[in-house]
Amino acid sequence: MTEEPGVAAVPAVAHAAATAQDPASAHDPATAHDPATAQDPDTLLQVAGLACHFGGVHAVQDATFVVRRGTITGLIGPNGAGKSTVINLISGRIRPLKGSVLFDGVQIAGQRPHEVARHGIVRTFQQANVFGGLTVLENLLVGAGPWRGERLTTALGRKRAWSGTERELVERAWEVLDRFGLTDIANSYAAALSGGQRRLVELMRALMAGPKLLLLDEPMAGVSPPLAVTIAQRLEELRDAGMTMLMVEHELRLVERLCDPVVVMAQGTVLAEGSMTELRSNPEVIDAYLGGGGG
Amino acid sequence: MSAGLLYYLSGLAILLGINLIAIWGLDLQFGLAGINNFAYVVFQAAGGYAAALVALKPASAYGSFETYVGGFNLPFPLPLIAATLTGALLAVPIGLIAMRRLRADYQAMAMLVLSLIATGVASAQTGLVNGPTGLALIPRPLTGTLAVSPLGYNWIFLGLTAVCCALSWWVARGISRSPFGRLLRAVRESESAVAALGRNPDMLRMRVLIAGGALAGLSGGLLVEYVTAWGPASWLYPETFLFFTALIVGGKGNLAGGALGALLVPIVIIEATRHLPAFGYPGLIDSLDWVVIGACLLVFLWFRPNGLLPERKRVLSRPGDEPAGRSVRAAVAAWRAGPR
Fold first, then answer.
1. Closest CA to A203 of A217, A189, A222
2. Residues on chain B bordering chain A, Cβ-to-Cβ distance under 8 angstroms
3. Do A152 and B211 touch (CB under 8 A)?
4. Pairing state of beta strands A72-76 and A121-123?
5. Which of B210, B235, B260 is the last residue in one of the domains?
6. Which residue of chain B comes nearest to A190, CA vs CA?
7. How far off is chain B from A240, nearest CA to CA, in Å?
């Protein structure tokens, strides 16, 4: 772990604008846990000292970084750096051994996936995780909610108790499909779609949930290049509309286009943080990840 | 038609109705929510015992003929209500034991083991429900108040079964067409994605286990009240696979498919073989029943896994854009809107 002088105890306010430029590597976990380090209003997600291991292997040790509102924060690093594990830790799929995850001022570390989602964090998966036996529209409708119509008691009552809201949701789902230009697959089974289309369905479904933060785990993996460009465009539009995202991605050109700042992980820890341009001139990052191509 | 044939056919129709309720209950759990409930027959059995113990007089009333707990001597329809509630309540412990923290295939194994344990307990604890011999002399509903011929009583019981079927259909259709049902199908397709969208898949599965368990309990109650006896041999674990086969052959996730399966598998296959001329050693035909059912299951899983009447696609059109003539209301609305 790299220790640079002066970054250990970053005061909350000074942290606000500086973070992106600061070559801040790992914070000292001791100060990160300190409740006195109040979250500044610009920060949506603050991950500090997060750690977990599988068996004897430290998958993530002391991951510390922030996601500011309205950014697409990139998370890059070589295979096995622990990027996806970090997403799984934040989303509650894996319980952290230690560390804190502050989301909008609320401590969510160790909560279960559905609890995390209810705070407004919706994730996508490394393997597009759609409901194959449901149509695209139905996938989107499951994204919206939870709402009253999904209760067993409502289901046993009269249709009128839920059909009104259902109609509004169907309308909203069609709007999302319009926005993504995918109305022609609205009533196709998700299982019948291509890998790239599934990614888009997953993204649309996440949007139906009205999230505050989207966690995207390699949203372009296994997607044909033209469709990847489409996905990138949609993500840009979402960012411009004020959505905050944390995105794991391998394709660096797309990262450069979409993400600022970018967090670099290697061997379970955060190596550096900054814009892609800054990272390209960071010798440590070049060494660990970017290889000879940088500089 | 002779009275004997009518008696036989009405009895068959009653069994069809009872199986229908059980298969719709399983369809909620397995077809809709994807729960491999290999302990399904235990829910039916529990409902059967509940109905029996509520309807029977205390054991002392029959001398030392049989031993059991309870015996409340309560009139119709209380035994059936008790059966339904027991099936529903049984879902809670079974769900907690078998469904939490286990992957779907291990859930299936845990369920199967629970089923075997239940049979063992019911047989070994002779004071509970009369051990391996089972309960007998279970009073039928309304027998004291109705003075009718056996055939007349069958028609009345058939009417009662039909009412229960209608109720079960209403429950199953209400769930499967509602947003709750959609969520259950989502759980079936991907539990992790459902959780990532803010719903607790464990709770959703628990709810449908309760709803399906209630239907299983009701079917058990009806069955016991009709046949007036119930013992561990009536609900051995292969019975669960009879229901699964019926559902897979007919078509899971489709109420009509479940109904078709209920007709084809437990009635046509099991009943038809009874009328075969005897061959081989005694009991051979009964054993062959299971071979035929197992083969049926395999053939369908290989060649037509969605069954004869597969789950229907739910096509949702854009609101205000529904195809004309789909419903009277839409047609009226279109007429009022005038020419476009």
1. A217
2. 171, 174-175, 177-183, 185-186, 188-190, 192-201, 207-208, 210-211, 311, 313-316, 318-319
3. yes
4. unpaired
5. B235
6. B189
7. 23
The answer to whether position A126 is within a domain reads: yes
Residue A244 pLDDT > 80, yes or no? yes
Q: Which of A103, A136, A138 to mutate to test the interface with B (most CBs of B within 10 A)?
A: A138
Identify the residue with better confidence: A112 or B61. Answer: A112
Q: How far apart are CA B302 and CA B258, in angstroms?
A: 19
Q: For residues B319 and B330, give the distance between their C-alpha atoms in angstroms, rounded to a whole number.
A: 11
- A 159-178 → B contacts, CB under 8 A: 159, 162, 166-167, 170-171, 174
- Closest-CA distance, B334 to chain A, in angstroms, reads 18
Q: Are residues B176 and B137 in the same domain?
A: yes
Helix axes B150-177, B201-227, angle to 10 degrees: 170
Can you give the CATH number for the domain in which A203 is found?
A: 3.40.50.300
* A150 inside 8 A of chain B by CB: yes
Which of A123, A131, A157 lies nearest to residue B186, judging by beta carbons?
A: A131
Domain count, chain B: 2
Please report, in tens digits, the pLDDT of each residue of chain B (340 residues total).
Answer: 788 899 999 999 999 999 999 999 999 999 999 999 999 999 999 999 999 999 998 888 887 788 888 889 899 899 999 999 999 999 999 999 887 777 888 889 999 999 999 999 999 988 899 999 999 999 999 887 778 888 999 999 999 999 999 999 999 999 999 999 999 999 999 999 999 999 999 999 999 999 999 999 999 999 999 999 999 999 999 999 999 999 999 999 999 999 999 999 988 888 888 788 878 888 888 888 889 899 999 999 999 999 999 999 999 988 877 655 556 666 666 666 655 4
Asked if B297 and B248 touch (Cβ cutoff 8 Å), the reply is yes
Instruction: Supply the DSSP symbol for A13.
Output: H
CA neighbor of A181 nearest in space, from A116, A237, A221: A237
Range of the domain at B251: 237-315
Instruction: Out of A162, A202, A209, name the one closest to residue B179 (CB).
Output: A162
Pick the residue from chain A with its C-alpha nearest to B212.
Answer: A152
Q: Which residue of A has its CA nearest to B310?
A: A133
Alpha-carbon dihedral angle through residues B148, B151, B154, B155, given to the nearest 10 degrees:
-90
Q: H or E stretch including A64?
A: strand A57-68
Packing angle between helix B40-55 and helix B78-98, nearest 10 degrees?
150
Report chain A residues whose CB lies below 8 A from the CB of B311: 133
Check: CB of residue A38 under 8 Å from CB of residue A12: yes
Q: Does A152 touch chain B (CB under 8 A)?
A: yes
Same domain, B57 and B116: yes
Task: Judge whether A31 lies within some domain.
Answer: yes
Q: Is 0.95 surpassed by the pTM of this model? A: no
Nearest-CB residue to A114 (from B199, B210, B211): B199
Domain of A69 in residue numbering reads as 12-130+193-293
A37 touches chain B (CB under 8 A): no
